[in-house]
Amino acid sequence: MDDPYENTHEDAYDVVVVGGGPAGEVVADRVVRSGLTAVVVEAEAVGGECSYRACVPSKALLRPGAARAEARSVDGARQTVTAPLDPARVLARRDRFTGRGDDTGQADWLDGAGIALVRGHGRLAGERRVEVTGADGTLRTLRARRAVVICTGTEPALPSVEGIDRIGVWTNRQATTADAVPERLVVIGGGVVACETATAWRSLGSSVTLLVRDQALLTGWEPCAGEEVTRGLSDLGVTIRFGVSAVRVARDETTRTVTVETDDGATLVCDEVLAAVGRRPRTTDLGLGSVGLPAGGRLPVDDTCRVTAVDGDWLHAVGDVNHRAPLTHMAKYQARACAAAIAERAAGRPAVTGGGQPWSAEADRFAVPQAVFTRPEVASVGLTERAAREAGLAVRTVEYRIDDVAGAALHADDYRGLAKLVVDETRGVVVGCTLTGPMATELIHTATVAIVGEVPLERLWHAVPAFPTVSEVWLRLLEAYGL
Ligand SMILES: Cc1cc2nc3c(=O)[nH]c(=O)nc-3n(C[C@H](O)[C@H](O)[C@H](O)COP(=O)(O)OP(=O)(O)OC[C@H]3O[C@@H](n4cnc5c(N)ncnc54)[C@H](O)[C@@H]3O)c2cc1C
Ligand SMILES: NC(=O)c1ccc[n+]([C@@H]2O[C@H](COP(=O)([O-])OP(=O)(O)OC[C@H]3O[C@@H](n4cnc5c(N)ncnc54)[C@H](O)[C@@H]3O)[C@@H](O)[C@H]2O)c1
């Protein structure tokens, strides 16, 4: 059958990328570097959730409080840092990172990289076709000669709480872009968004209450991570209520305050409520039906990020939308792999995976690092002890208090931190690591290298950490293991 788009060059690209967040930007950049052409379709702002309403603004809000706490943890410096944070300056600094949502810089970067940008909402319209509806309602069809890559990310899930759709509930968007510090903030959830947001706004002066359905924070992590963050947030003045769910919320139109009723019969009054109960894929209005897929679900993929439920090797999904490892750095890692696979197949080669090839995003399955900038920081990579046991590994764990390391005591008078290694005894290698305490987020990469490199512990013994650094915890862990 004749292809009506065959000669319409302006609307045909080798690769059509739907969504210009971290995943989409990197896929497009890498395919163009490989000699193919690419277009990015973006509905809101190039840079995605990460740049404007997630990672970047949240870390910009967290850093001043962390810097202040760090100075106050050293005698001699502590006495000089007595004033609270200056919210106006903190919010202004955040805005310098986000440009308040202005994506001119990132759009210019796409242009400079030779990537076309089409603004509008993209939907699949059958095999290798994407229809884009512009803000003015105009419709444009893009044809992909080789591949379509879905990088549409996620949107916040809302808990089923009566009235939650009528109070102007905060999601990550308001929590990272608000222009004023709420006097009283109630947070529903006990995961990373809940814990980081509580840290940030409490540091800026809010009175924060966490309503945590579970009996711990950061479930899914090693229990010590949640315990340390519970202690740290409590010390910061955050109220944490475990085993409690909100059942009803209502905003008073006169006072603008929100009343939150909980399932233990209590009532809280606050100024804002943040829902931080996880994310759902942005696939409801994506034309998935045109390629035989149900709307609204995740898009399972193989290690090259090819959507497994669709025949052929043209449809891919990268980043949060495939739910393999919903983090920016893993989205970008998958993007590099996916672009390499597309280039490999374009060259007529099969892109076989599983052997550490650049087109194989296999680290998603065993070495996902995560850095959480709470007080204290927590970071992890690889398997928890529980996950390793469930996977049938011969598990041995080693724990060490980081405060007992000379470098940690020099770093902060009140240093408090934990390190836990999960070792696969059969292979004699580290398969998981969790760290808590100051600089945990920077220290975790050492563990990532050990896990990905499958470095035997006897060999790791020869990687000598410098004295007097916090990294000496690695020596202590190996000694505790018996080396
Ligand atoms: C509060 C918060 C803090 C976070 N902090 C961190 C952190 O510190 N570190 C970290 O690694 N991760 C963090 N994350 C997770 C991180 O934000 C995501 O993993 C990351 O944004 C995923 O990138 P993505 O490109 O897959 O999706 P997104 O960043 O969500 O980008 C998707 C893009 O697709 C566009 N889009 C969607 N649908 C369409 C469509 N139909 N047509 C056209 N365009 C479309 C959207 O407008 C958006 O620009 C955080 C998340 C939250 C909520
Ligand atoms: N520093 C970082 O790496 C960072 C920071 C923020 C967010 N993120 C990413 O953003 C994503 C979303 O984070 P999140 O915290 O929203 O999700 P999450 O899955 O980490 O935590 C969700 C929390 O909400 C609770 N919950 C779920 N449903 C509930 C309900 N109906 N009522 C009450 N509580 C409920 C869960 O028990 C859990 O405590 C994650 O994938 C995370 O990796 C990463």
From TrEMBL:
Boundaries of every FAD/NAD(P)-binding domain copy: 13-335
InterPro entries, per the entry: Class-I_Pyr_Nuc-Dis_Oxidored, FAD/NAD-bd_sf, FAD/NAD-binding_dom, FAD/NAD-linked_Rdtase_dimer_sf, Pyr_nuc-diS_OxRdtase, Pyr_nucl-diS_OxRdtase_dimer
Domain Pyridine nucleotide-disulphide oxidoreductase dimerisation: 368-474
Keyword Chaperone found: no
UniProt key word NAD: yes
Pfam families in UniProt: Pyr_redox_2, Pyr_redox_dim
Cofactor names: FAD
Keywords of the record: FAD, Flavoprotein, NAD
Family listed: Belongs to the class-I pyridine nucleotide-disulfide oxidoreductase family.
Name this protein carries in UniProt: NAD(P)/FAD-dependent oxidoreductase
Organism: Streptomyces litmocidini
